[in-house]
Predict the 3D structure of the following.
Amino acid sequence: MQQDQKIALIWNRLQHSTFRSNFQLKDQDLIYLHKKGMDTMRSHARDFIAGRLAPAFPAKDGKQTPWRGHPVFVAQHATATCCRGCLEKWHGIAKGQPLDDAQQDYIVQIILLWLKQHGGESVNPGDNQQ
Ligand SMILES: [Zn+2]
C-alpha cells in the first residue's frame, strides 16, 4: 500500500474514535503554533519521535508523551502516535524494534497533517512535500 493511502485509511479510523477525535489545541497551543510555524513543529516532532519513540524499548513507554505542554504532544495523542503500544495497535508498527527513518517520517507526516487541520491557519501548499 502507498503511504498516502495508508495515512488516509488510518485517518479515517482515527476520526471514528471518540477518544482520538476529541483532542483539540488549547489557546496557548495555537499561539505557540502560529508563533513558531509548521517548520518548527516539524523539527520538534522529529526530535520527540527520535528521542521518545524511536528506540526499540523507549523509556516509560506508554507514558512518555505528556497530555499537554506542546501542540505536538496533543497531536500525538490524537493520531495514536504517542507510544509504541498505540503505534502497534493503530499503525501496525511492531514494538521491540527501533523505528527506521521511513517510519519516523511517516509519524511526523501524520502529526503535521493533524496540526494543519487543527491549527486554524492557512497552510502553504507544498508544506507537506517531502
Ligand atoms: Zn499511546
Summary: Residues 3-20+27-118 form one domain. The pocket of zinc ion is lined by residues 82-83, 85-86 (CB under 6 Å). The chain has a mean pLDDT of 92.
